[in-house]
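Everyone, study these two lines:
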Amino acid sequence: MSNRWVKDNKDLIDRVEQILQAAYGENAELHPALNEDDPLKIPSLNPDREPYEIERSEALFWVDRPAYYEELDFCLLKHHETAIQHLKANELVPVFHDLVDAIKRRRIAPFIGAGMSHPAGFPLWGAAMKDILSRMTGISSDAVTSEIKKFNYLKAAQMLWDHDSSQVKNYVRNKFDKRQISKDSVCGPITLLPKISYGCLITTNFDSIIEEVVGRGSLDGYMHGLQQGNKFVPKLI
């Protein structure tokens, strides 16, 4: 390949490099394990110019990509070593492989809790109920707080609802308003939902982050509570 060809096809080469750079960026959380405190320094032939600096992970990616991915595989093994040992110790490796196969087929039903919405700025359930409790008067704070500390969230929520359901409704309506959600605010593991499942999604959350991630037009059925006759179940078949 001549220098002339490279110059004449700059747009094509730039596009390929953008795709490769995006692939490199997807592994950003693992790069610190490959890099050291100081980047590699390459002296310039020009004595008036400072040395070029490049991170070790980036140099390996562009110079020897198979070696780069081999190193990443080793990093992943080290990163997940505790989980791997747990699976082996409890004879759960076959179960784990079944789960992986189900994910590859996108045939699992993710259960989405408050922890998945928390990175977008929504409260965890413990914090939410404490906030609701602080707005109420005439309720036994110690009793509700005791249930929250024991992670008996359903019982604590029922106590709050029974005491003043209007406060609970107002809190949910204001705190989980969908207008608080923007594309920039949706982040974290929940963004992986489209890669995991295209079937049933189960959530205990009041926010609409799932609709933003999956796409409102992609949700064929919807049910909360009993909602008899909403034809949700037939859509699962």
